Amino acid sequence: MFDYIIIGAGIIGSMVARELSKYECKVLVVEKENDVANVQTLANSAIIHAAYNPEPGSLKAILNIKGNYMYDQLEKELDIPILRCGAYVVAYNEIEENELDRLADIAAQNGVPEFSVLSYSEAFKKEPNLSSNVTKVLSLPTTKVTYPWEVAFAAMENAIKNGVNLKLNYQVTGIKKTNDYFEVEINNQDIINSKYLINAAGVSSDDIAKLIEKQPKFLIKGRKGEYFVIDRRYGDFVNHVIYPLPTEAGKGVLVTPQVHGEVLLGPNSIWVDDKNHPTTTFEGLKYVKDHSKTLINNIPYDRIIRSFAGVRASSNHEDFYIKESEEVKGLYHLGGIESPGLSAAPAIAEYLVNEIMQVNNKYELNKSYNPIRKKPIPYYDLDENKQKELYAANNLYGRIICKCERITEKEIIDAIHGTLGSSTIKGIKKRTRAGAGLCQGGYCEEKVMKIIARELNVSPLEVAYDKKESKLFTSETKVVKK
Amino acid sequence: MKKEFICIVCPRGCRVVVDGDDISGNQCKRGIDYVKAEMTAPKRVLTTTVKTIFSEWPRVSVKTDKPLPKELLFKAMSDINKVIIDKPLDIGEVVIYNLCNTDVNLILTKSLKGVQK
Amino acid sequence: MIDIVVIGAGAGGLAAAITAKEKNKKVLLIERESTLGGILNQCIHNGFGLEVFKEEYTGPEYAHRYIEKLISLKIDYLLDTTVTKLEKLSEKFIITMTSEEEGIKKIEAKSVILTSGCYERTRGHISMPGDRPKGVFNAGSAQRYLNINGYMVGKKVFILGSGDIGLIMARRMTLEGAEVLGVAEIMSYSNGLNRNIVQCLIDFDIPLFLSHTVTNVIADENNNLKEIIIQEVDNNFNPMINTEKHFFVDTLLLSIGLIPDITLLDELSVKVDPKTKSVEVNQAYETSVRGLFVSGNSLQVHDLVDNVTKESERAGLCAVEYLNKENNEAEEIRILAGSNIGYVTPQRLDFSWNSSLIISFRTNKKMEKAICKVIQDDKVVYKKRLMFLVPAEMETISFDYQILNRTSDIKVVLEELS
């Protein structure tokens, strides 16, 4: 019997798992995907917002402000990348300037630190490619950028080290509550029991609610966003996150520097029926191109290396829906966690665990809790002496596998066998960046495939690109039919 | 009746026009031979691979030493797919003699000399 | 100190190293793969060597000729060794490299020739819409899996882009038992050699859809490719409505162009030509960094390997000339791409060199007949008639540049003839 089952290993599920690991309770995280942070957390703008637009007093405002602060601590504890680039919200005319002033008011009410309103010429000095149509700028120095997948990964790795259990490829297919515990059905077969249940299933959180509630109080609709990625070698045309004014549909098409030097363009905002399956379209990508160029000049569109789509879990509530179920005691919902969900994530976890669930009244503190997680150091970020030292200990540091991002064989092997190891091409790419660069795996995919096969002692025919059934090869050549 | 061919003898790809006995457009003599064969019995050089027992080169490249009648390409492939090379043969050495009962041999286009098992 | 370090042992690197060694220079050739020959090893089809050897070879045979020569000349080479950094300190280069055997190592050289080839454009570069499933491969990657490793990436195949690699793979996959349902090309004409259209598509009844592109990629629940949609495009390459064709395939191969790989030059501030996406060079293949030469596909993407060899032999000779060169006061003019010209190399003409001038260019328009003119101060200084120009094929012209004045830039133009 578990004390808690958390459904979903996205950034919210991972943060809640880590928060719970501070206490003496038994926690299981179940994830339907084959890796952590595979849906909403994997594909978004990666911004830790300053809280310049959520309604003052709302959970979105309070938890965003708090979460933004908490990332400074998380950076030290979890060894995650943070880019402190700040942001500019831009206005183009008098009407928009009034709206910008209203946002500045909201920022003041929300307690956003250090914000200021700049003239075009003041902003231009810091952002030389800023469109000359811009008339006024709201500067938000506390806006940061991170790598959301790695934040979730790091939090989950740390939670596991502190005693949390994680099961991947575990889809919740049924929930029953008998007497005082939950029976959670996995993949239409096994039953696992827990005292409490936490619904952190992101875009699927309403589907989870429907498994046990007669009338769920929230509904998720998917809102898709499409993006371009510009090669990090050409990413220096912009210094800040550049936002247009927000609209009903969201924060608009942005230009966002990324922690590894790339620049993201996007997202657009389109309601989709299939919320688990966002996809890019010709029209959507064209929209992003057309809108990004109104913010910044000299965007090197010919240096785009990738495009992708993500989905936001928008709900029928304005605010985050973080509550105990009205129908089923002991079931806690984390619904409608869309922007600023990433920014608020650590604060959301703390709010749920301490204020809603009051875990501190139920369980003792975990005395062996260690908040520190160390990331595997990218070998080519080290100085030469350290590189030589590591090579002396293991000569596989000498062999480069991904030439674009300079990832060595040892780093690939560590990613395969790590605490949260992976044996798929995509899993290795997320963990090491092998294949994330200019040639997008054209050079290294074959080498990574061979290393996976060797390390797991399987045939290359068994190596998957992503899901278990997505094998890289369909057969050998020269198979003689009997 | 005029008929146009694209000569495939070399990368130049001449457009050769045949009008009765008159052949034009070819930049070299081989174009004439190609077009004549193409009208009667088209032939192609087959390039493919053969299985080996060597882990360093699990497949090795081969070609036919002469063009093979076009209609025999798939038959030849199925014969070639049955072969496994277990000796470190040199480039140019014959892997299959008289492929599909023609006078065409299959030869190695790569050296396996010094290859590791 | 080494006289000349050559980086990359494909067709270009082999030729450059051999040429320099024949002039008795101390040469070191560095290759990141475990074999010499580069991409030629996976190009098992024939069509190589007609220009250089007057004989038709497959890729591995072509490479073999040069590898034998390299070995007979006792040229030093390193395998499984990746160069990670290239720096220049006053007159010498410092090359940092790494291997499993030796770890990180630095060597010094008087001159460097970069022959690192090119990489394939991916679906990301053309912003291809749709899902991101398993089953979308670059044609070259699939070629390596098929020909070197011996694995099929799929059984039902569609190919985007009519470049030669795509056409060659259409035939190879068919011969190995896959079904190739078609090839789509966004341009109104094929980008591959005519002979490949004949022997790779027509021979196997594979349809070619000109002015079509892939507008959707659809995955199944396991994230495997299950379907693609192609559409006809208008003159601005925008897809037209009601032209959708559906193909149920497990594999989409991309043959959508190659880009010179000059990422090794990131640390040196070398002048780049946005048209070739490689570095600017003078007629000696020397970059804006003195003593650093670039040739082969890392300078410009060639359609014939023979031209990679010839260009790199010239680069090898120029690197030799550099070692003994005293006159560095450069009178220099620029070579500009004029009307109907996609790009030119070299981009500069430096009168301090003895090397001859060979200008390579590509048309940006398909033309039956054209006249190529070189213009200086509004005067035509050179002209040549050319036939059957297509953007996929590189053209070269050569003339004695001593006839030029040393102060005005020259411009290469193409005039279409009817």
Keywords:
heterotrimer; A: 482 residues; alpha+beta; FAD/NAD(P)-binding domain; D-Amino Acid Oxidase, Chain A, domain 2; Arc Repressor Mutant, subunit A; 3 domains; eight-stranded mixed β-sheet; 23 strands; 23% strand; globular; C: 418 residues; Immunoglobulin-like; seven-stranded mixed β-sheet; five-stranded parallel β-sheet; 6 helices; 30 strands
Give a quick summary of the entry:
Chain A has 482 residues and is an alpha+beta fold. Chain A has 13 helices and 23 strands.
CATH class of the largest domain in chain A: Alpha Beta
What is the residue-mean pLDDT of chain C, rounded to a whole number? 95
Would you tell me the structural class of the helices and strands of chain A? alpha+beta
So how many helices of chain A?
Answer: 13
How do the strands and helices of this protein lay out in sequence?
The complex is a heterotrimer of chains A (482), B (117) and C (418).
Chain A (H helix, E strand, L loop, with lengths): L1 E6 L3 H10 L6 E4 L16 E2 L10 H20 L3 E2 L3 E5 L2 H17 L5 E4 H7 L9 E5 L3 E3 L1 H14 L3 E3 L4 E7 L2 E6 L3 E10 L5 H6 L9 E11 L10 E3 L10 E4 L5 E4 L3 E3 L9 H11 L11 E12 L5 E4 L6 E5 L5 H16 L2 H4 L21 H10 L6 E3 L4 E2 H9 L7 H8 L12 H12 L18 E2 L6
Parallel strand pairs in A: 1-2, 1-12, 2-9, 5-14, 12-20
Antiparallel strand pairs in A: 3-8, 4-8, 5-7, 6-7, 10-11, 11-12, 13-16, 13-17, 13-18, 15-16, 19-20, 21-22
Helix pairs in contact in A: 1-5, 1-8, 2-8, 11-13
Chain B lengths: L1 E5 L8 E5 L2 E3 L4 H12 L2 E2 L2 E6 L6 E6 L3 E2 L3 H8 L3 E2 L8 E3 L9 E3 L9
Parallel strand pairs in B: 5-8
Antiparallel strand pairs in B: 1-2, 2-3, 4-7, 5-6, 6-10, 9-10
Chain C lengths: L1 E6 L3 H12 L4 E4 L15 E3 L8 E2 H14 L3 E3 L2 E9 L2 E8 L3 E12 L3 E3 L15 E3 H11 L1 E2 L3 E5 L3 H12 L3 E7 L8 H8 L6 E3 L1 E8 L5 E8 L12 E3 L3 E4 L3 E3 L11 E2 L4 E2 L12 E3 L10 H20 L7 E6 L3 E5 L2 E3 L7 E6 L3 E10 L2 E11 L5 E4 L11 E8 L1
